[in-house]
Design brief:
GTP-binding; lysosome; nucleotide-binding; hydrolase; alpha/beta; cytoplasm; binds guanosine-5'-triphosphate; 4-stranded antiparallel β-sheet
Length: 352
């Protein structure tokens, strides 16, 4: 079989090509859960810490420079990201100064249905007040719902030297945990991330927050591992149209694609497929999985000579993804019963 390459380069390489295989009826679209089932992520922190900027840059493709003109948020802004993300969730952006003692602030209602609480701290500012606010917020929320994931974004680190970043991270980590220990709340776990809207760190941090809320994640990782082992791929990753979520067996290897937009909207659709020769030994292969998700593999050139098998395995993989997200996902696709319908093929021809 001859190998055909699209040599247009990585950045602008995304386009529509005819499918090389016809596997019969299309799989149905992944169904959306009702809004009450969607995990909720809260964005909290002092005024001007950068909450709205994060939400606009990550989910609405706002350029970082435009955030300079964002107005202060005065009430809770609820953003349903279902239409731009494979993973369905809501983000609630809070105004800077939430008054927990205000009778109109309904902690029960707000924290009960929350999956993750992101607390944003401006690392370029004096963060003493932010730390006491973090403590108040976390202790309140934990009392209502101990299952919330508490995520602390040490934000705007683009203005800090590398040494200063490390020292700020250490200091905030230490003080926040000391405050919890003093209040007998050692069991509360805080995760810390160094973030900035001016580089990929904010996408990476948000991606990690969202991944923790996906019950199907272990199953997805298993599927990717099977795909890697049978297709002899060097690296594999998935990305979403909103760039917010990736499933990476090899977490060291992060890189990002941005979907090309044209006048008529998004260039990405069911037919999307790209094959790019990266160097003399590796080929990048990208294919649509769902409306919001693509599979990207880096293959050794010799593996790509058996492209039919890779396409077949991709078909199995896509079918499985559709199944777990339709069924609600928590039941494992890799249980014995379901495994019988999932038959990947190894490159030596054996069926797994
Ligand atoms: N240098 C730098 N500035 C940032 C970053 N993120 C946000 N900002 C700036 O911080 C300022 C405040 O950002 P907002 O997103 O409005 O902050 P907020 O927390 O939503 O503010 P309130 O609505 O008042 O609570 C803006 O001028 C942003 O441009 C960042 O990562 N680095």
């Amino acid at each position: 079989m001859s190998i055909q390459y699209d040599e247009t380069g990585l950045a602008g390489s995304f386009g529509s090509f005819p499918k090389s295989f016809d596997y019969g009826a299309e799989e149905p679209e992944v169904q959306s859960p009702s809004s009450s089932d969607k995990p909720r992520i809260l964005l909290m922190g002092l005024r001007r810490s950068g909450k709205s900027s994060i939400q606009k840059v990550v989910f609405h493709k706002m350029s970082p420079n435009e955030t300079l003109f964002l107005e202060s948020t005065n009430k809770i802004y609820k953003d349903d990201v279902s239409s731009t993300s494979f993973v369905q969730f809501q983000i609630w952006d809070f105004p800077g100064q939430v008054d927990f003692f205000d009778p109109t602030f309904d902690s029960e209602m707000i924290f009960k249905g929350t999956g993750a609480l992101i607390f944003v701290i401006d690392a370029q500012d004096d963060y003493v007040e932010a730390l006491s606010r973090l403590h108040l917020t976390v202790s309140r929320a934990f009392r209502v719902n101990p299952n919330i994931n508490f995520e602390v974004f040490i934000h705007k680190v683009d203005g800090l030297s590398d040494d200063h970043k490390i020292e700020t991270h250490r200091d905030i980590h230490q003080r926040a945990n000391d405050d919890l220990a003093d209040a007998n709340l050692e069991k509360v776990h805080l995760s810390f991330y160094l973030t900035s809207i001016y580089d990929h760190s904010i996408f990476e941090a948000f991606s990690k927050v969202v991944q923790k809320l996906i019950p199907q994640l272990p199953t997805l990782e298993n599927l990717l591992n099977i795909f890697i082992s049978v297709s002899l791929t060097v690296l594999i990753l998935m990305y979403t149209t909103s760039q917010t979520c990736m499933f990476l067996p090899d977490a060291e290897a992060l890189f990002y694609f941005r979907l090309m937009q044209d006048g008529s909207g998004c260039a990405y659709d069911k037919e999307s497929l790209a094959t790019i020769k990266l160097n003399n030994t590796t080929v990048l292969y990208l294919k649509e999985v769902t409306k919001f998700l693509a599979l990207v593999c880096i293959l050794r050139e010799e593996s790509f000579e058996r492209k039919g098998l890779i396409d077949y395995n991709f078909h199995c993989f896509r079918k499985a993804i559709h199944e777990i997200f339709e069924v609600g996902g928590v039941s494992s696709l890799l249980s014995e019963k379901r495994n019988s319908s999932l038959k990947f093929a190894a490159l030596n021809g054996s069926i797994l």
